[in-house]
Each structure stands twice: as structure tokens, then as C-alpha cells.
């Protein structure tokens, strides 16, 4: 159904924060005709100016209060560490019966920091779309970002099932598959599938960067042999990722602990020349890749469909 | 010039081993008209049958001796750990004045294990094309694999510059940019740009796989948030990678040591809530990505140009 105009799911959606995620949501909402009106607000004049110039949201507001007034859905699309302050700012202006959701990459911490600010009679349904790129800002979004990706909803206790169903309908209209889970489980699964991989990629790129200076750009020049795939991950927004690690500390540290344990075992196998250990480990990890392709979460095209011919011209 | 028929660089090229690298070389050699004839040999009947069926090489031979007879270039395209035995097998059958090269991912060890087997009057010029995919075997190759990628040549002392120039012309005809460097430097640069990143990716996938069983496939389902890019790297051939780590032990262990040092510093920053340390680190690593795009070694397209719309249908 993606791409076909549908009945609006909400009358007025307010996007607070106008970066990669909010702008992609807007283009997908517009593509699907999912809202009567979309208002937008970002803290900086520069971002609001850009949004007005490129037509990002139907109405760009100069205050968060103005943006959320009369909205039946408010989406917090700012870094996790900024959620509490933004929630405090908008709370007095929320319409009765409105739903507040967020798109933050960590859920327990957002629930604890946003929840207390929201007034009675407002539904709070935390969410997290599992899609992104290494780019950020209002001009980085595109309508297809969420197509065929997962969006996790993390309803808190006592949430009205009707309100959840409506938010689910929005994300489905945006192109996502929706699943519900609890906050702690979310934070652990994401520590494995996203947060720890990002930290490791950042670390590897940092190590290479140190050596890169020594070897005069060779690390960049010869990056196609594996390293470059780490650099994409490690090019993501520093503020966003600082906040993720500060707020999903326990789960990330737990997975990191397991990671270093396994890494030390492989390191020992290299040192002692234990080829069987290495071979068995590398064979086991191969199967998981097949699972991901079968689950439709990646392409089997060589080189991710990068086209070297094109980059040559 | 890629894609345009050129004058043959060699009269007869023998490919020993018919996997991803050899088959991609063949299609590119054919595309460029770079050899009068290409012969091929692989140890297993199954691979030779497949090669005959798909027209991989002009003449598939049942012995290595037959394949190298009369060849003016012999390419060893087998795992690094198998190079010595293959060199011993072909040595008595090499034509006088022929060049022997290899495509192994480690160079010091190949020089030490292959060199002593080769007779006087044969040029030995080790090489390493920096391009690959996670697929292997005779059917995984394609002509454009090496386009705009680097091929490193590692001539040993006393190599005839003419022979090196000719091998360079072949790789340029195949589509690569060619650079020369010494073996130890090669092994260190590759430990940074390829070998350590692969080990880390294998480790992360192993950790996730353990947890994946617990959380019933969620790791696969939600892999698009970063993890899936590791799984591609960690789906590469186990034999090849076992051999790489066993033969590039010192450089890999050195880079791994630096990696764990940096990782522990970041881990401590997470534990103590030192957001500035995290932010500064993540900012620094961002720049290196820009360098890679500028160097033409990757695309800036969101999501590597993966097209979720297509995978949806
Ligand atoms: N990027 C991803 O891959 C991804 C994926 C899933 C979820 N998320 C989550 O989505 C949220 C937004 O990420 P994004 O990628 O869209 O980020 P982004 O492109 O960097 O945009 C962030 C937006 O938040 C605003 N902002 C930043 N700091 C703020 C503060 N202290 N107070 C108020 N507003 C602030 C920015 O305003 P200005 O433009 O005016 O500075 C900007 O409009 C984050 O919580 C992130 O965890 C990201
Ligand atoms: N894949 C990459 O990303 C990449 C990139 C650059 C360089 N390299 C290097 O290129 C070389 C070949 O890699 P590849 O990716 O082409 O591998 P591949 O697709 O797995 O093919 C390997 C070939 O070597 C043969 N072989 C395997 N073990 C052997 C043994 N013990 N004795 C004799 N022959 C044996 C196989 O024969 P059968 O088919 O009969 O089993 C097969 O034809 C390796 O040295 C690797 O380090 C690989």
C-alpha cells in the first residue's frame, strides 16, 4: 500500500526536532496522506529556515508550544538526552487526549525522563523506528527510509490500546512493520544489534585514524577491504550516540563484557595458532548472515550494490 | 579504458584456484582481451566441472602441471595456507622466464612459503587485489570486481622491473589502480584496514548469535540498525580468514592490542558518564568517512544504495 494516498490517521501531527528521522517521517506521511496537517519545530533558527525553504512540514512554528497546540499526535525527534527538557517545554500546551510519542534509540531512559512531565489525559507511547543513515539534519530525510523496516512501540503500563492501535496504523502507513515490546527488552536487543556494534566501529575507526596519520592516508586509500563499512557506522551523529551510550549504559556494558571475552578467546587462538578454533568460529557466524537476507533485512548483492563502474567515471 | 578490448599483456595466463578472485580476474581479462589464452585449475572435480559448465577460463585442466605448462603468467589464487603446497606442485612445470604471482591477503608469509620452491629464471611478484565480497567459489566472480580498486604489488628484492611493469599493466587492464609496497608494510596496513575489522565483526556476530538463540531470532529481525553491516563482513570464507590470522599474526595482534586499549577507555567513559570523552571521540572518527568518500572508495548514498522498496515487493 506504500505510496498510495490513504485516509489521514491523525488530524494534526507535530514534529518536535527536524532532523533525519523527523524529516523522513514527514515525507512518508505526506506520501501516504496520513495527516490532515503536519507542524514542525526545531530549536535553531537555521533549521527552521531550512525547513521552510524545502517545504519540510506544512507549517514551521517558531515555538514548540505553537507547534503542539491542537495536535492529536506529538512526535519527539530530538536526541535522547534532550527529551526531558523538550517534554517539560511542551507539556503545558498539549491538547487533552493527544498522544505523545518519541523516536529515541533508548527506551527505559526516555520513559523515565519524559513520562513524569506529561499531564493526565495525554497518552504516552514511546517508539523507535529501526532505520537510519549516517547523515543528519533537516535535509537528510527521504520518504522511503522506513519502508520494510521495523518500528518498535513500547507502551507503558495502562496505555489505552486504541491510542496504540492508531499510532501503529501511522507507522504502517509510513511503510514500517510494527512490533510491541517492553522497554528493558528493547534496550538489550538494541545494545546487541546497534549500540555495541556502533561503539566497536567507532573504536576501530579511531585506532585506524591514529595510524592513518602515520601511514599518510593509506588507511583511507585502502579502505575497501573491510574497513570502510565500519566508517559509515562511525560517521553517525556524535550527540545522538553520546546520549545513547550514557542512557543505555547497563545493557551496553553487559554486551561489551561478552564481546571482550569472546575477542580475547579469538586473540588467544591467533597467538597459539589454534586454526580449528578460528575456523569453527568463522563457520558458525556465517549462518546468521543467511538469516538476515532471508528475513529481507539486507540484500545479497555483491558489495551492497555499490557500483564501482559508476564511481569510476 | 575499462571494457575496451586491448592488446594481450600475456600470451597464456594460468589461474591456479578458481574461486571468487580467480573467476573475477578471468572475466575481467576476457573483457579486456588481456591474454591470448587463459587456463584454469582447481583441486576439486566439482569446481573444475562448474568452471567448464560456465566457461570459466578458455581451457580447464585436470592437473596444475598441465595448466601452467607454457604459461608466461601463473596466478596462485588459493588460500594463503595452501600457497606453499601449490607452489611445490607447479614448480617443476614452470616455463623459463615465466612470472608467478599470487593474490593472497597476507604477503610476508606467502613470500616465505612460496619463494623457496620457485626455480631460478622465474620471476616471483606477489600481489594482493583489495577487493572482495562475502561470496566464494567459481560462480561468485564478476568482471567489475576490481574496477577502481587498488591492487598492491610487493616485488621481492632483485625483481626484474620489466616483469613488474608487465604485471602492473595486466592489473590496470583489469580495472585496478596499482601501487607497490614492501611486504611488512602491506601486512600492517592490511591488519588495520581489513584483518582486525574482520576479526571484530566475526566476534560481534558471534556474541549476537549466542544471544540470538535466547531472544528467538530478534537479532536477525532487528539487524538493520547497524548489526547487519557486520554480518556481511563476518560471512566471508572461514578457510581464507583462518589462514589470514594464522599468517598475519604479529600485525593483527598489535592492532588488536591498540583496539582493546581504546575500547577500554570508551567503556570507562560510559561507566563514569563522561559524555565529553564520548562526544569528542565520535566527532574525530567522523572525518575519516569523508576522506573515504572523497577518495572514491565508497558511495555516500544513504544505506549504501540498498533499495528497501525493491526488497518489499
Ligand atoms: N539517525 C538514526 O540512525 C536514528 C535511528 C533511529 C532513531 N534515532 C533517534 O531519533 C532521534 C533524532 O535523531 P536524528 O537522526 O533525526 O537527529 P538529527 O538529524 O541530528 O536531528 C536532531 C534534531 O533534534 C534537535 N536537537 C538537538 N539537540 C537538541 C536539544 N538539546 N534540544 C532540543 N532540540 C535538539 C535538532 O535541532 P537543530 O537542528 O535546531 O539543532 C534537530 O532538529 C534521536 O533520539 C535518535 O536517537 C536516530
Ligand atoms: N575473498 C576476498 O575477499 C579476497 C580478497 C583479496 C584476496 N583474497 C585472497 O585470494 C585467495 C583466494 O580467495 P577466494 O576468495 O578466491 O577463495 P575461494 O572463492 O574460496 O576459492 C578458493 C580456491 O582455492 C582452492 N583451494 C582451497 N583450498 C585449497 C588447498 N588446500 N589446496 C589447493 N587449492 C585449494 C579452491 O579449490 P576448490 O574449489 O576445488 O575447493 C578454490 O578454487 C586467498 O588467498 C585470499 O586470501 C581474497
UniProtKB/TrEMBL annotation, chains A, B:
Q: Does the keyword NAD apply?
A: yes
The entry lists its GO molecular-function terms as: NAD+ binding; prephenate dehydrogenase (NAD+) activity; prephenate dehydrogenase (NADP+) activity
- Pfam families assigned: PDH_C (PF20463), PDH_N (PF02153)
Q: Which GO terms describe its biological process?
A: tyrosine biosynthetic process
Q: In which pathway does it act?
A: Amino-acid biosynthesis; L-tyrosine biosynthesis; (4-hydroxyphenyl)pyruvate from prephenate (NAD(+) route): step 1/1
What does the sequence similarity comment in the record state about its family? Answer: Belongs to the prephenate/arogenate dehydrogenase family.
Tell me the NCBIfam families matching this sequence.
PRK07502.1
Q: What is this protein called?
A: prephenate dehydrogenase
Biological source species: Pseudosulfitobacter pseudonitzschiae
Amino acid at each position: 500500500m506504500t505510496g498510495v494516498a490513504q485516509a489521514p490517521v491523525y488530524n494534526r501531527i507535530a514534529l518536535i526536532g527536524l532532523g533525519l528521522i523527523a524529516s523522513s517521517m514527514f515525507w512518508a506521511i505526506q506520501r501516504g496522506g496520513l495527516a490532515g496537517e503536519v507542524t514542525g519545530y526545531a530549536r535553531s533558527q537555521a533549521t527552521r529556515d531550512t525547513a521552510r525553504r524545502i517545504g519540510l512540514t506544512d507549517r514551521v512554528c517558531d515555538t514548540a508550544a505553537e507547534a503542539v497546540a491542537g495536535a492529536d499526535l506529538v512526535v519527539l525527534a530530538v536526541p535522547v538526552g534532550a527529551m526531558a527538557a523538550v517534554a517539560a517545554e511542551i507539556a503545558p500546551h498539549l491538547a487533552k487526549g493527544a498522544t505523545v510519542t518519541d523516536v529515541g534509540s533508548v527506551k527505559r531512559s526516555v520513559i523515565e525522563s519524559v513520562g513524569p512531565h506529561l499531564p493526565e489525559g495525554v497518552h504516552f507511547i514511546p517508539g523507535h523506528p529501526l532505520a537510519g543513515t549516517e547523515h543528519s539534519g533537516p535535509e537528510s530525510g527521504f520518504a522511503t527510509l522506513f519502508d520494510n523496516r521495523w518500528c518498535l512501540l513500547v507502551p507503558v503500563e495502562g496505555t489505552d490500546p486504541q491510542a496504540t492501535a492508531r499510532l501503529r496504523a501511522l507507522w504502517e502507513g509510513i511503510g514500517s512493520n510494527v512490533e510491541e515490546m517492553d522497554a528493558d527488552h528493547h534496550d538489550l536487543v538494541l545494545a546487541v544489534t546497534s549500540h555495541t556494534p556502533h561503539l566497536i566501529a567507532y573504536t576501530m575507526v579511531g585506532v585506524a585514524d591514529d595510524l592513518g596519520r602515520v601511514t599518510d592516508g593509506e588507511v583511507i586509500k585502502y579502505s575497501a577491504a573491510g574497513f570502510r563499512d565500519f566508517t559509515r557506522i562511525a560517521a553517525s551523529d556524535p550527540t545522538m550516540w553520546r546520549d545513547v551510550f550514557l542512557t543505555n549504559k547497563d545493557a551496553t556494558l553487559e554486551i561489551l563484557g561478552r564481546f571482550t571475552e569472546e575477542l580475547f578467546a579469538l586473540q588467544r587462538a591467533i597467538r597459539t595458532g589454534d586454526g580449528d578454533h578460528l575456523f569453527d568460529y568463522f563457520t558458525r557466524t556465517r549462518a546468521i548472515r543467511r538469516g538476515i537476507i532471508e528475513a529481507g533485512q539486507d540484500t545479497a548483492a555483491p558489495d551492497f550494490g555499490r557500483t564501482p563502474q559508476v564511481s569510476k567515471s
